[in-house]
Design goal:
- The structure holds 2 protein chains of 2 kinds.
- By secondary structure, chain A is mostly helical.
- Chain A contains 14 helices and no strands.
- In chain A, helix 3 packs across helix 12, helix 3 packs across helix 13 (260-279) and helix 4 (69-81) runs parallel beside helix 7.
- Chain B is α/β, with parallel strands linked by helices.
- Chain B is built from 12 helices and 12 strands.
- The chains are: A mainly alpha, B alpha/beta.
- Chains A and B meet through helix 2, helix 11, helix 13 and helix 14 of A and strand 2, helix 3 and helix 4 of B.
């Protein structure tokens, strides 16, 4: 019997509560943010981060870690600002090929039994290099349609919130509700038993990586929709942000335990934390430290929860 | 027109009528500095100048606030978020040293749409609604050759020290130097090395290339590399050419030492970090309703033989020669662009 305060439901409630508490604090500090425009400005840059976080979460779900997400999103952004704008067909082919490389990466990592961290770290230099080749100096321009979507002003609820909710729902349906999602999490939990049950682990991992690549590509497109132009280093920070977002949102590094809704909340929380610190006018020298402290506090709470989970299981 | 508006209007007319009004119309305006990086001496001097000048401006009531914000990491996405936060904090103007000329355009557009004035300087943005205080890096390269043409009319061999490969600034200054050489064809560049704007790198690079070079009459530089070049040439036992300096303290100190010892003559040119204060006054002028052209140009800070002692005295050890700009300087720059 699940109760509201069982460790399982707390896993998703803690991130939600910390987001709500942070939002309340920001509203108090800067009442201007409590408006349509305010919410949009605070959260619109969280949308690509949320997409990158979902991509990272998929990789983490199969017990790997992707250190190339930031470079890959930058690459996708550069393709968006150049080819997707001028020759949409070539742009789409390049992006599809990039997703194919991601799938291949998942297969190679599994078949050759390579550490994912090393492979993705290596690939991050490849993506960065390709991005620099595409856009040696910052520039390019955003395709009209994505600019229109990202600057649209739907009634009542700002675009940033609608997009975040949409990302959370789609990811939730894929990861938690589809049969593919179950098998994928199974690969992360116990790859051998999934194999014995007759599923092809290679196929599942290839699909997981391809899906992650797709989310990362969308992150790049959306980012360009917000910034109107790209440069080769535009999203390098996303690597660490996406990992932090997954963990903040209740995911575990191993065992296929991930939460798509939590991951989106994690990405929003990280973005909001930066705004919060900025509104407090904390000196920038301290800001990284404070961001780290927030992460440590959340992880400490998680540790307590995990302990309680074990006790519940024993009981 | 409501009564209150009429009152306001008449106050405004009165204020214009009074030539010596001490407090500007911007006394309730708030200006923010959005800065992407603080990790070198130039940026530190930039922030110190900002504090000095805006602190004074706030205390006499020219503006209500002028706060500086630096992003923790030098990343465009982070600075875009910072700009959006500054909009939410209700600043009337944002003075911006941008991490990327294009990746902040979305955030800058948001600021303009919210009625916030954006003035970018040094690291400028391409969004048309923002103001730009640009550095004419090409001209900075060209004037070096022009100066040399005055010193050595018969011309000679030049060694070019470049900056960090692949960076826009390096390409621009170098293009300016080559333009200068085309203009004064009595000069030819006989060697070119990358000094990465750092004395130690420049010293190693110059020491490495020197044995393969004929006599060098002058060294054209990009700043931060003159002292290293001098060390390498001295170590090789060659005659000291005219080395153009870049306003760094160690460069000026070496120049002064040589001047006292053997009457060495050269010039030094770079951009003063105090350009942040120029951007501040430009923003203040725009808020004041002044008609300011969208594109302005930063004046160089040149040190000559005559101003050498003065520059050395005011430049902190390990720092860069600096100058803080005043309201009048800003007005002159605006007038020059019109």
């Amino acid at each position: 019997m699940k109760t509201l305060f069982s460790a399982d439901s707390l896993r998703i409630l803690v991130p939600a509560f910390s987001l709500a508490a942070l939002l309340a604090a920001v509203f108090y500090l800067q009442p201007r943010t409590m408006s349509y425009m305010g919410l949009n400005l605070m959260f619109n840059l969280a949308v690509p981060i949320a997409l990158a976080t979902i991509a990272q979460m998929l990789i983490i779900a199969v017990n790997d870690l992707d250190l190339s997400i930031g470079a890959f999103v930058s690459f996708a952004a550069c393709v968006t600002a150049t080819f997707l704008e001028s020759d949409p067909l070539i742009g789409l082919i390049i992006l599809a090929a990039a997703v194919g490389v991601y799938a291949l990466m998942g297969v190679v990592i599994y078949l050759r039994n390579l550490p994912a961290i090393v492979v993705t770290l290596g690939m991050s230099f490849v993506w960065s290099g390709l991005a620099v080749l595409l856009l040696p100096s910052p520039g390019g321009s955003a395709p009209e349609w994505i600019r229109a979507i990202m600057t649209s002003r739907p009634p009542f609820v700002p675009m940033a919130i609608i997009a975040s909710v949409l990302i959370a729902i789609v990811a939730h349906l894929i990861v938690m509700r589809s049969s593919f999602g179950v098998v994928m999490r199974g690969v992360g939990g116990n790859s051998r038993s999934v194999e014995r049950a007759g599923w092809s682990v290679v196929k599942v991992r290839a699909m997981t990586y391809a899906l992650a690549g797709t989310f990362a590509v969308i992150a790049g497109i959306v980012l360009v929709g917000l910034t109107t132009a790209a440069d080769a280093n535009i999203a390098l920070r996303y690597t660490l942000l996406s990992i932090a977002g997954v963990i903040l949102g209740g995911g575990e590094f191993v065992g296929g335990r991930v939460s798509p809704i939590g991951a989106v909340i994690g990405a929003l929380t990280l973005t909001l934390a930066a705004s919060f610190l900025s509104f407090l006018q904390i000196s920038p020298d301290w800001q990284i430290g404070v961001q780290g402290a927030i992460l440590i506090i959340v992880l400490a709470i998680r540790l307590l929860l995990n302990r309680r989970e074990r006790r519940e299981k024993r009981a | 027109m409501k009564i209150s508006q009429m009152l306001l209007a008449s106050v405004a007319v009165l204020a214009i009528g009074m030539p010596a009004a001490a407090i500007a119309d911007t006394s309730d305006k708030r200006i923010a500095l959005s800065n992407n990086y603080a990790g070198n001496s130039w940026r530190q001097a930039m922030l110190t100048s900002w504090e000095l000048v805006t602190g004074e401006a706030v205390s006499v009531g020219v503006v209500a606030a002028a706060d500086a914000f630096t992003t923790a990491e030098n990343q465009a996405t982070e600075q875009a978020a910072q700009i959006q936060n500054l909009i939410l904090q209700g600043y009337d103007a944002i003075v911006l040293n941008a991490a990327s000329p294009t990746a902040l355009n979305g955030a800058v557009r948001e600021a303009c749409d919210a009625g916030v004035i954006v003035v970018s300087f040094d690291g400028i943005v391409t969004e048309p609604c923002a103001w730009r205080i640009a550095v004419e890096f090409r001209e900075m390269g060209r004037v070096q050759v022009e100066y040399l043409a005055g010193r050595i009319p018969e011309g000679g061999n030049l060694l070019e020290i470049r900056g960090l490969a692949g960076v826009f600034v390096d390409d621009e200054i170098s293009a300016g130097i080559h333009q200068g050489v085309a203009e004064f064809s009595q000069f030819q560049i006989v060697g070119s090395v990358h000094g990465d704007w750092a004395q130690d790198v420049a010293q190693r690079a110059v020491a490495g290339v020197l044995p393969s070079l004929p006599q060098i009459d002058a060294v054209v530089t990009q700043g931060g590399d003159g002292y290293g070049a001098a060390q390498a040439i001295a170590a090789a036992g060659r005659d000291m050419p005219i080395i153009i300096m870049g306003n760094r303290q160690d460069e000026i100190a070496w120049w002064k030492e040589q001047k006292d010892a053997n009457g060495y003559e050269t010039m030094s040119v770079s951009i003063a970090p105090g350009v942040s204060t120029l951007a501040f006054w430009v923003a203040q002028q725009i808020l004041d309703g002044e008609d300011v052209p969208q594109d302005l140009v930063v004046p160089f800070l040149t040190i000559t033989q005559d101003t050498l002692e003065e520059a050395l005295e005011t430049t902190p050890e390990g720092g860069v020669a600096n100058v803080e700009y005043s309201l009048d300087d800003a007005k002159a720059v605006i007038a020059a662009a019109k």
